[in-house]
Design goal:
Distance between the termini: 96 Å
Membrane topology: Single-pass membrane protein
CATH class of one domain: Alpha Beta
Subcellular location: Cell membrane; Membrane
Shape: elongated
CATH topology of one domain: Beta-lactamase
Largest sheet: 7 strands, mixed
Strand content: 15-25%
Organism: Nonlabens dokdonensis (strain DSM 17205 / KCTC 12402 / DSW-6) (Donghaeana dokdonensis)
GO molecular function: penicillin binding; peptidoglycan L,D-transpeptidase activity; serine-type D-Ala-D-Ala carboxypeptidase activity
GO cellular component, one term: plasma membrane
Structural class: alpha+beta
CATH architecture of one domain: 3-Layer(aba) Sandwich
CATH superfamily of one domain: DD-peptidase/beta-lactamase superfamily
């Protein structure tokens, strides 16, 4: 029995030792070797050059510049002389201590960024002095260099990745930069390239002494993809100038391709402000500006009532449904009356009108009667509304268009269910009559308006708007952007509507902004603007809106301009659109008086009026440093004080 027990013990011990040997040699030997390598080998990342961004004509908009990050590996630092190091890095001691604590929490073995994006001048004095501090070193990287002082909303910017990004994509490590908005975000994977790295053998102090295995395991970086965007740099710059001291958006599309020629949101800022050591301060100032909202892309995210430009859609739906004809005339007695009450007012003009004059004069009564016939053409109002909804949404309204930019809003085109859920009682066409003139419950984004205009210019189809034209010099091949999207309106119905839009310029509401030698089709709009102040509904200055395409028979540009509080369509929006059309087609501006008018006029007084009766807005402006004195004596002083140095 004792022999058997002794044999069992010896056998068991042998099995344990054998299992341990197998585990060490076969199972975790690679892990132990890797850990040993990590302890004796230092890996230094070699960041690739980020892809350049060119405009459609090959003009460089975004390039790169050399920058340097101060890095730290916490477990290699030992006792740090905080006072001496903070003086060298030109940073407060308390801030440096916080950064070191954060780096240690992140990882004691992996490197973290302490001071990012140093310039060549800032880096030079550190090059030798930093050797005195074990665990600290300089990492060279490529940083963005913006060759334009505009287009921040569409170009975007890059920023240090957060923990969420690192968890989602193992390509990134602490301290890496990635696109955070615009093209930089949308095409991050193409622009970033692939990181390389070099390995070095460490000495017992953790210092790199020689290349590991003669560089056999080093990997060279792969440069990012160069992008050619569809924007016209010169047209974009000109549009930005025209929008100074105004708020709103401009978007122009090439109808034949869906390429975005210009995309401007105002107010905007210089993209260079979001690079370098002051980028965090500048970003915070921009994000905290709840008065101007410069971080909101009004072209893609602003949902507005479209106003009178929407009338052309109702004309097309009416023709398609056969409820009107181009020559049929409707009377206008200074507005549309129903049940003995005036539902919609209208300005003075000749009456009765056929379709071409209805569009040219922007007659509310004409389009109210067209809209009512559409809704009442079916057995019930909800059925008629559904038919109307399906036609309207075929123009890309009321839904996210699917363009290649990272933000957007769908807008709203109501259907029968929408109104049935809104009203407890049975509703009829006159209940929703404001939709006839682009008010009511209809909401669109400026890019949807421009796309709608492109569909009209093409006589019934559009290509999805997009911002990328080429990658590394090769045209993109994406069916999403080369496939025609057809509306539900037959091609034959577009001509009478287009004739009416042409008459807008010839003898209608835009006759004073004609461009010599260019036949333009357009539609002005004045959008009623209401808000609630202290619980009371108050009307503010109307918005100015305009859509157009040109030339009439060979469209090269379709444009939408939306100016907040711009009074009426022809006062600002139509003027801006006509100058941009001339600039794009002729390459020069001949109406310098009109240009001077727009460049010299400011709407800041109107924007000050928006907040003058709202104490909470005044307080916000004071907190943000936009208003220097709490007690403003007049609106003009409010205008003068509403200045933020980071914005144009």
């Amino acid at each position: 029995m004792r022999k058997l027990l002794l044999f069992s013990i010896v056998t068991l011990v042998g099995i344990i030792f054998l299992g341990r040997m197998i585990y060490l040699q076969l199972i975790i030997s690679d892990e132990l070797a890797l850990e040993a390598e990590n302890n004796s080998v230092k890996t230094v990342y070699n960041y690739p050059e980020r892809g350049f961004i060119y405009d459609r004509n090959g003009k460089l908009m975004v390039a790169n510049q050399v920058a340097y990050d101060v890095m730290v590996i916490p477990r290699e630092t030992g006792d740090v002389n905080i006072t001496e190091l903070s003086k060298l890095l030109r940073i407060e001691e308390s801030r440096l201590e916080k950064k070191l604590i954060t780096a240690k929490k992140w990882s004691e073995k992996q490197a973290s960024v302490i001071i990012p994006q140093l310039t060549q001048e800032e880096y030079a004095p550190l090059q030798e002095q930093l050797r005195k501090f074990p665990g600290f070193y300089i990492q060279r990287r490529s940083l963005r260099k913006y060759l334009v002082d505009h287009s921040a909303s569409v170009l975007g910017y890059i920023r240090e990745v957060n923990q969420g990004t690192i968890k989602k994509d193992d390509y990134y490590v602490q301290g890496d930069l990635a696109g955070k908005s615009g093209i930089e975000l949308q095409y991050e994977k193409e622009l970033r390239g692939e990181k390389g790295y070099k390995k070095y053998t460490r000495d017992h102090y953790g210092r790199a002494i020689e290349s590991y295995k003669n560089g056999s395991s080093d990997v060279a970086p792969v440069a990012g993809t160069d992008l050619t965007v569809t924007l016209d740099k010169d047209l974009q710059e000109y549009a930005e100038r025209l929008m100074v001291n105004k708020r709103g958006g401009i978007v122009a599309i090439e109808p034949k391709t869906g390429e975005i020629l210009t995309l401007v949101t105002a107010p905007n800022y210089d993209p260079s402000l979001l690079m370098g050591r002051d980028r965090s301060k500048n970003i915070n100032a921009i994000l905290r500006d709840t008065i101007r909202l410069p971080d909101v892309n009004r072209v893609l995210q602003g949902q507005y009532a479209p106003g009178s430009p929407f009338k052309v859609i109702n004309a097309l739906v009416g023709l398609q449904e056969g409820v009107i004809s181009p020559k049929e005339r409707f009377s206008c007695n200074h507005g549309y009356n129903y049940g003995g009450k005036k539902k919609l007012g209208c300005h003075a003009h000749a009456s009765p009108l056929a379709m071409n004059r209805g569009i040219a004069e922007s007659c509310n009564s004409y389009f109210a009667q067209v809209y009512r016939r559409i809704i009442e053409s079916k057995k019930t109002a909800p059925e008629g509304m559904d038919v109307w909804h399906d036609h309207v949404t075929s123009f890309g309204l009321g839904d996210y268009l699917g363009y290649d930019l990272p933000v957007g809003q769908p807008g709203r085109i109501p259907d029968g269910d929408y109104y049935t859920s809104q009203y407890k009682y049975k509703w009829y066409a006159p209940t929703t009559i404001s939709n006839a003139i682009g008010q009511g419950e209809v909401a669109v984004t400026p890019i949807q308006l421009a796309n709608m205009t492109a569909a009209i210019a093409n006589r019934g189809f559009y290509y999805r708007p997009h911002i990328i034209k080429k990658m590394n010099g090769e045209p993109i091949s994406n069916e999403k952007y080369t496939e025609k999207n057809f509306t539900t309106i037959d091609a034959e119905h577009f001509e009478p509507v287009i004739e009416g839009m042409n008459e807008v310029y010839q003898s209608g509401t835009a006759k004073y902004v004609q461009v010599p030698g260019i036949e333009i089709c357009g539609k002005t709009g004045t959008v009623e603007n209401f808000t609630k102040i202290n619980g009371e509904r108050k009307q503010l200055t109307d918005h100015s809106v305009f859509i157009a395409f040109a030339p009439k028979d060979d469209p090269k540009i379709a444009i939408a301009v939306f100016i907040e509080n711009g009074y009426w369509g022809s006062r600002y929006a139509a003027k801006i659109a006509s100058l941009l059309i001339e600039k794009h087609i002729k390459g020069e501006i001949t109406r310098t008086d009109l240009e001077k008018y727009l460049l010299s006029h400011s709407l800041e007084y109107e924007y000050a009026k928006r907040i003058s009766n709202q104490p909470f807005k005044i307080n916000e402006a004071i907190d943000q440093g936009l208003i220097t004195e709490q007690k403003e004596k007049s609106l003009q002083s409010l205008v003068d004080s509403l200045q933020i140095k980071f914005l144009k």
